[in-house]
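Quick one, tokens below:
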């Protein structure tokens, strides 16, 4: 294991390396190893910000690996204001393009105050209020949010995931210790739910196994610039678990406070690798093994941080260990699959000759489609061979075993969800002359999903009627 490129320890499974820092701030230290390790940081007497003279507490956090850092973040705020945010740079010559809802702080030891041309290991600190903060960088960064020191509560910290790392279901519970001391030191507990504004009302919660309902005892707070919203929901049932769902995705944090005490943690997100990734039908490669596709065409897409080498063969794709020669150096490609299990691997080489490889499993099942749709009574398979002349097109779906959760039936036009038709078996829409990709996505009772695409061709005729005198 190496600390800032200096060898510090050779460890066997189960062993721990511990280092006490003499420095006052080790933000930006670079820890590397030749095998996976977990890395924790701790501070035994923190005051946030350092100019405060109240609320001293220890902080402890497991840090996320650099390959999960992202470029887009939305950081909500708790009811304990203000909150602090620290942005850590992972690559040289990074620029933080947007900071909406946050103010860069001066006077923070070691912090940078210019968001341009930042180097690996440097950091910027923000103070945020009210509607949260949207952060966008041109290279991957790490973000941590802090509860500040106040008279009634001590500081706490929470690692923040990028907006790409959403999940669709999470179960949390209030952290209520068996307190034998008086007064009770943790009295208030909250869930902090972040989701896109246009789908926030799809967020539901089931408390103690009860039927899902809208979130309660709080309010949605919208951040217009980020197009994100968050909800601070009190967790008042000390003996129940809270199950949150939203088929459009969300990130959930948990926090609590009391007399001279607080906690703050990441309760639910997907720790997706974002340094280099590939997608199959828009499903991230780390999620592929849990997703079944019906036999047919699968679209692949690569998203890679850093500059690829200019030589041919810089990007390669493999299926079951055999390279797809025709797709070499292609960022996007597609292939028709029959039922079975396939190992998909993406390999890339960068300008400095470093290489990276990402592998996942593609599950293809034989489907006689438990779901079909029609456009003006034309079966979806025949829709591409049909030219529609009337602007208004009526869609209808026939589905067996549709899941009862909201968002189990979605319709897409040109790759963008048409939200007005969500969960509707029948709907209509006017179209202008042109060609449109139509897709119906269905989630069945057993949790399996299917995507049914088609192509709509419109040639709308306009008839000009002359005035005739009789």
């Amino acid at each position: 294991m190496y600390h800032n490129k200096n060898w510090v320890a050779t460890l066997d499974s189960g062993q721990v390396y511990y280092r006490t820092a003499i420095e006052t701030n080790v933000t930006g230290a670079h820890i590397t190893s030749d095998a996976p390790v977990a890395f924790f940081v701790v501070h035994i007497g923190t005051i946030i910000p350092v100019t405060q003279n109240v609320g001293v507490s220890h902080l402890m956090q497991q840090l996320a690996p650099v390959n999960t850092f992202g470029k887009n973040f939305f950081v909500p705020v708790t009811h304990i204001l203000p909150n602090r945010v620290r942005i850590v740079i992972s690559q040289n010559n990074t620029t933080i393009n947007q900071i909406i809802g946050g103010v860069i702080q001066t006077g923070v030891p070691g912090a940078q105050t210019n968001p341009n041309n930042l180097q690996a290991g440097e950091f910027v600190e923000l103070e945020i209020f009210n509607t949260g903060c949207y952060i966008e960088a041109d290279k991957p960064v790490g973000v941590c949010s802090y509860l500040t020191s106040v008279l009634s509560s001590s500081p706490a910290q929470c690692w923040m995931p990028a907006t790409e790392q959403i999940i669709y279901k999470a179960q949390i519970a209030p952290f209520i210790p068996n307190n034998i001391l008086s007064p009770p030191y943790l009295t208030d507990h909250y869930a902090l739910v972040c989701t896109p504004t246009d789908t926030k009302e799809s967020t539901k919660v089931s408390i103690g196994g009860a039927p899902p309902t809208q979130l309660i005892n709080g309010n949605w707070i919208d951040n217009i610039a980020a197009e994100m919203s968050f909800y601070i929901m009190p967790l008042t049932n000390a003996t129940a678990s809270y199950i949150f769902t939203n088929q459009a995705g969300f990130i959930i944090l948990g926090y609590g406070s009391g007399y001279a005490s607080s906690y703050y943690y990441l309760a639910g997100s997907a720790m997706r690798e974002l340094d280099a990734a590939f997608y199959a039908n828009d499903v991230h490669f780390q999620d592929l093994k849990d997703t079944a596709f019906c036999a047919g065409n699968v679209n692949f897409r690569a998203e890679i941080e850093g500059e690829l080498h200019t030589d041919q063969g810089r990007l390669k794709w493999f299926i079951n260990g055999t390279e797809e020669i025709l797709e070499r150096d292609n960022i996007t490609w597609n292939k028709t699959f029959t039922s079975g299990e396939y190992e998909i691997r993406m390999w890339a080489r960068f300008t400095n000759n470093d290489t990276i490889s990402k592998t996942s499993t593609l599950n293809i099942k034989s489907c006689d489609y438990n779901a079909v749709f029609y456009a003006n009574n034309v079966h979806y398979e025949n829709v591409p061979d049909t030219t529609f002349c009337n602007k208004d097109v009526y869609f209808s779906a026939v589905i067996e075993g549709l899941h009862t959760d909201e968002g189990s039936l979605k319709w897409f036009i040109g790759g963008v969800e048409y939200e007005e038709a969500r969960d509707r078996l029948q709907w209509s829409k006017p179209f202008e002359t042109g060609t449109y990709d139509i897709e119906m996505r269905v989630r069945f009772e057993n949790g399996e999903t299917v995507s049914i695409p088609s192509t709509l061709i419109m040639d709308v005729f306009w008839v000009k009627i002359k005035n005739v005198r009789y």
